[in-house]
Amino acid sequence: MTPHHRGASPTAPWAFGLASALVPGLGQVLNREWAKGVGLAGVALLAVALEASTGHYANLGGYTPRTHGGFFIRGIWGLVTLGTQPRAMTVAGLSAGDHSIVLMVNGIIAVLVLLLLLALSVWAVRDAVRTRRRFLETGERIGVGSWARDVRQKSFPYLVLAPTLVLLLFVTALPVIFGILIAFTDYSDDTLPPLQLVEWVGLANFGQLLGAGAWGATFFGVLGWTITWAVLATATTYVFGFAQAVLVSSRRVRFPRLWRSIFFLPWAVPAMISALVFRSMFNGQFGPISQFLVDTGVTPERVMWLTDPANPWLARIIALLVGLWLGFPYFMALVSGALTNISPSYFEAARIEGASAAQQVRYITLPIVLRATAPLIVLSFVANFNNFGVIYFLTQGGPANPDYRYAGSTDILITWLYKLTLDNGLYDIASVMSILIFVVVGSFSVWSLRRSKAFADA
């Protein structure tokens, strides 16, 4: 006879879950799982002790979260208010006050810890309900040793990954959340803690950047060039790399390994070094290219390749050519690897049918290689979208554009973001920019990878 047929009706499983929700570990204790109950109660006591030891609860007169709260209470208060009393410079130094950024970081940490405790509490409730339901159905109780072996067998990957996930939560998620929250504040050089308090401004920064004013004109202008740059830089490097790989793999080319080694040289040199070299070569005042054109009579005067505000596309074309020089060996290597996987029987059959070399490339080589490299094209587009090095070290965003705010004609979003933060201290606008970059890049990546069916078998 099972336990629920003996005497009075048994307590429902949900009551044990409610007990664990009200008092951590109580449901486990009622289920006679003493070790789990004591462990959960110990975690709860540690959280209470942390709050009590970091707060001022001995004297509750005139209680406020700012003056009496501990790790959790003051953390949440600081995250919500970002402080109420700025510091002031006195004869003795800075007075006691609030630092908005420190309060925000502490608040994020407190919320993350509370979320971990909440996740543990949810697990405890579900565990208490499952254990009680199993006892009502079978009348069996699982000992600590059996439970530990069961968890080790069924949840071993999660046990191994749990410390890493917790570490990632504070090392990776914390900076990301902080960067997102800054977008909803007025944090900048004009509002700089600790002498000033940062305030929440809601969506005002988004409205300013996406509006019809100077900020909006700069954002959409830079965004348009960023997309153009990413598309053209990806397309040109892929086409040129594909062509070089096909030509070198031709049976008519002698010493193919030598040619591949030569073509890989631009890839072997650090991109920053190459960009600085090209910047010197295309220097309008002292560069050898401008001097050569003047000496040969091609141009009557030196050409300001990278700094002429009247011809911004001149600098943009130079940037695309430098990007082509630096990027085509990557696709050449990828396409060369893909070509080795194409069966020679395909080309043999095509030659028997009378297909020309160009037709073989178009109808056999290109579709197979494109299918194999499509996800990498998407990743290359994303890399070019955020290709800080080539643009910044080659042109530094120039030439100057009088219609833009803190941006030049060749600036892409990531270089503009760099200027907004390090050069001008506009952290709030820069944070909005980072969110918008993530939305654009993330949306395009997901859409493209789904169309290419890169994860069809995942």
Automatic annotation (TrEMBL):
Compartment(s) where it occurs, according to its Swiss-Prot or TrEMBL record: Cell membrane
SUPFAM superfamilies (UniProt xref): MalF N-terminal region-like, MetI-like
Membrane topology type: Multi-pass membrane protein
GO MF, one annotated term: ABC-type maltose transporter activity
Domain of life: Bacteria
Gene3D superfamilies: MetI-like
UniProt entry keywords in alphabetical sequence: Cell membrane, Membrane, Sugar transport, Transmembrane, Transmembrane helix, Transport
ABC transmembrane type-1 domain residues: 223-448
InterPro entries linked to this entry: MetI-like, MetI-like_sf
PROSITE patterns documented for this protein: ABC_TM1 (PS50928)
GO terms for cellular component: maltose transport complex
Transmembrane segments annotated in the record for this chain: 12-30, 37-58, 101-125, 158-184, 227-250, 262-282, 313-342, 363-383, 429-449
GO biological process: maltodextrin transmembrane transport
Function of the protein: Part of the ABC transporter complex MalEFGK involved in maltose/maltodextrin import. Probably responsible for the translocation of the substrate across the membrane.
Similarity comment: family membership: Belongs to the binding-protein-dependent transport system permease family. MalFG subfamily.
Protein name (database record): Maltose/maltodextrin transport system permease protein
Organism: Microbacterium radiodurans
